[in-house]
């Protein structure tokens, strides 16, 4: 048996009983002959509570100290889990991200992993221990400061360790039984997917599916690390995410035409009104956004009015970056020469993802017909070879997701999707 990396989310270790249940599952994997490395998130809503506490003390906490505060949650989880495992008669050692060799850049609150040097982890498991690693954190390469990887960063920690340790698989344990064709909190008849390709999972993650972080899937694809998404609350098989289909029994699981429907209500829309329709204007707009270190998603430019020679450019971005984007554009107003700015944070994005879309006529028509039948108005449209995304009113998102899900025959015959824990906060 080879080495397995397991990751447990906050809902799986939300309380003492959850931690003891997870400890039993980890020990079972050890008894089955695996070397086991575990990455753990903070308990329940601990990270959110620490953020709330920081905001009460300081409206704009310094990045370095904010990271130092937030990493406390995972340190609590890892120590308690190691204690629970030892209570079951097995040796366990806990490690912070820096002790585990997770080396990052110096961008606080959303650092990126540069390298993983897991010497201490390898030594620990070779000595027969179960290694418990605090997820979501690392140490900066230059200043040796504690850093965090951004929300959902424990998934990335797990895959990065799996790659560095040449693990057989990275098991991501969460509060649902796998990856579903839609968010089971919104679509009760969502169906579990047995296998999904890295590319489709990347699109779902980028489009709002919260089961796996986009960076985690990208890392796994780069190093060809199979991911098994499953629930820590049940013993069911979950969803395999890999480059090649898995085998069940004597046959391979075939990829579906449509993988699923994702949605995202965490974005806002900025419209730059009255932009001169001439070369260089869009470049100036998006250079200002880039210099402010803001990531954007969808972009649409209207056809310019013949009488004025002016056009409007709209784009979407995270709500948390909205104020920064408006300030950056206002500073560049003279250089761009636009009339005004509009900001709208009451939008939602719905995306249909599937590798078979480009070879199956009628997918686009069916998608828009489903939205029309549900009375959903479309504000922006974006497409790729395996995805169609639209922006609508935020209030319309649940109805839109359910309508599209049903229109493409993704509904389960029964209410299959179960959410075992977590607040969804």
TrEMBL record:
Alphabetically ordered keywords of this record: Amino-acid biosynthesis, ATP-binding, Diaminopimelate biosynthesis, Kinase, Lysine biosynthesis, Nucleotide-binding, Transferase
MF-aspect GO terms: aspartate kinase activity; ATP binding
EC nos: 2.7.2.4
CDD domains: AAK_AKii-LysC-BS (cd04261), ACT_AK-LysC-DapG-like_2 (cd04923), ACT_AKii-LysC-BS-like_1 (cd04913)
SUPFAM superfamilies on file: ACT-like, Carbamate kinase-like
Domain ACT: 270-346, 352-425
PROSITE patterns xrefs: ACT, ASPARTOKINASE
Primary enzyme class: transferase
GO cellular component: cytosol
Catalysis performed (reactions): L-aspartate + ATP = 4-phospho-L-aspartate + ADP
Residues binding substrate, per UniProt: 47, 74
GO biological process, one term: homoserine biosynthetic process
InterPro entries attached to this UniProt entry: AceGlu_kinase-like_sf (IPR036393), ACT-like_dom_sf (IPR045865), ACT_Aspartokinase (IPR054352), ACT_dom (IPR002912), AKii-LysC-BS (IPR041740), Asp/Glu/Uridylate_kinase (IPR001048), Asp_kin_monofn (IPR005260), Asp_kinase (IPR001341)
Protein role: Catalyzes the phosphorylation of the beta-carboxyl group of aspartic acid with ATP to yield 4-phospho-L-aspartate, which is involved in the branched biosynthetic pathway leading to the biosynthesis of amino acids lysine, threonine, isoleucine and methionine.
Record-stated family: Belongs to the aspartokinase family.
Protein name: Aspartokinase
Species for this entry: Streptomyces guryensis
Lineage, uppermost ranks: Bacteria, Bacillati, Actinomycetota, Actinomycetes, Kitasatosporales
């Amino acid at each position: 048996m080879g080495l397995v990396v397991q990751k447990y989310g906050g809902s799986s270790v939300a309380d003492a009983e959850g931690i003891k249940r997870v400890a039993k599952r980890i020990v079972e994997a050890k008894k089955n002959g695996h070397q086991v490395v575990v990455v753990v998130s903070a308990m329940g809503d601990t990270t959110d509570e620490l953020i709330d506490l920081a905001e009460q003390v300081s409206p704009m906490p310094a990045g370095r100290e904010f990271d130092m505060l937030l990493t406390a949650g995972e340190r609590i989880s890892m120590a308690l889990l190691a204690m629970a495992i030892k209570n079951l008669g097995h040796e366990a050692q806990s490690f912070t991200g820096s002790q585990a060799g997770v080396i990052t850049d110096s961008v606080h609150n959303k650092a990126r992993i540069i390298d993983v040097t897991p010497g201490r982890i390898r030594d620990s498991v070779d000595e027969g221990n179960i290694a418990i690693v605090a997820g979501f954190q690392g140490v900066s390469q230059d200043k040796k400061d504690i850093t965090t990887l951004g929300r959902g960063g424990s998934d990335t920690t797990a895959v990065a360790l799996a790659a560095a340790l040449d693990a057989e698989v990275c098991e991501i344990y969460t509060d649902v039984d796998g990856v579903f064709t839609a968010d089971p909190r919104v679509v009760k008849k969502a169906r579990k997917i047995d296998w999904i390709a890295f590319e489709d999972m990347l699109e779902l993650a980028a489009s709002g599916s919260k089961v796996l972080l986009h960076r985690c899937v990208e890392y796994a694809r780069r190093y060809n690390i199979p991911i098994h998404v499953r629930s820590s609350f049940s013993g069911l098989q979950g969803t395999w995410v890999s480059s090649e289909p898995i085998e069940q029994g004597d046959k391979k699981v075939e990829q579906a035409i449509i993988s699923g429907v994702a949605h995202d209500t965490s974005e806002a829309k900025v419209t730059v009104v009255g932009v001169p329709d001439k070369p260089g204007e869009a470049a100036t707009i998006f250079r200002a956004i880039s210099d402010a270190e803001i990531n954007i998603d969808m972009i649409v430019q209207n056809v310019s009015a013949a009488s004025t020679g002016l056009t409007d450019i709209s784009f979407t971005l995270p709500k948390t970056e909205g104020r920064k984007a408006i300030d950056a554009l206002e500073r560049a107003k003279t250089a761009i020469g636009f009339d005004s700015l509009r900001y709208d944070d009451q939008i939602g994005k719905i995306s249909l993802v599937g590798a078979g879309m480009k070879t199956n006529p009628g997918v686009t028509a069916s998608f828009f017909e489903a939205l029309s039948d549900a009375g959903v108005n479309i504000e922006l449209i974006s497409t790729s070879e395996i995805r169609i995304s639209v922006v609508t009113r935020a209030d319309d998102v649940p109805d839109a997701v359910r309508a599209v899900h049903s229109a493409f025959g993704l509904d389960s015959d029964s209410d299959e999707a179960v959410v075992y824990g977590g607040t969804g906060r």
